[in-house]
Amino acid sequence: YGVFVAPALLAVSAMNGGADQATFNVFAKLKWGRVYDAILATPLTPRDVAVGELTWALVRGSVYAVGFLVVAWVAGLVTSGWAVLALPAAMLIGFTFAGLGLAATSLMRSWQDFDLVQLVLLPLLLFSATFYPLEVYPASVRWLVQLSPLYHGVELVRGLMLGVFAWTMLVHVVVLLALGMAGLRFAIARFDATLRT
């Protein structure tokens, strides 16, 4: 069971690293510290701010993933040499949730809105085939589980860490990349609208 759950928790750690950095810290700089006002007095643009914040969130999520993979290896939960490819997959997960986190942060009005972030992240943790295989869920609910971005990340990392490859891994990569890019593009547009006023 540990070998089954460890890849999922690696994906969750990358999700948390990317989402936390792109929400809490960015909101504090955006609404409370007004840090971006000073940054935009330089030649940097709102797009540069969004890409920079996403990059830092990606770095933080990657550090979480490396730490988790080392702990999993020491605990004997890494069974394949292909597990090294789980790190780029975790970076992709971090990118996805950092992009979505930036998009969500650009819409937040107050600190109370962070309750909504946790309201989304907790069900993703519990219902993305993290602790149980997809087949355990009732057939009527499986499609809902498969809509979760974390599900795609979990399946990708699990396949890589177990050394089990399938063409569906490409689908997972495309979904994660598309969601991350959509979140980043939305955040850039919102930052451009709010920071220039």
Explain this structure to me?
- The chain has 8 helices and no strands.
- The chain is elongated and about 50 Å long.
- The termini are far apart.
- The longest helix has 31 residues.
- It is mainly α and 197 residues long.
- Helix 4 runs antiparallel to helix 7 and helix 7 crosses helix 8.
Number of contiguous helices: 8
Give unreliable regions as ranges.
none
Could you tell me the radius of gyration in angstroms? 17 Å
What is the strand tally? 0
Shape: elongated
Give me the strand/helix succession. Answer: HHHHHHHH
Label the structural class.
mainly alpha
Overall pLDDT confidence: 88
Percent strand:
under 5%
CA distance, first residue to last residue: 53 Å
Largest sheet: none
Helix proportion of residues, in percent? over 70%
Summarize the structure.
With 197 residues, the chain is mainly α.
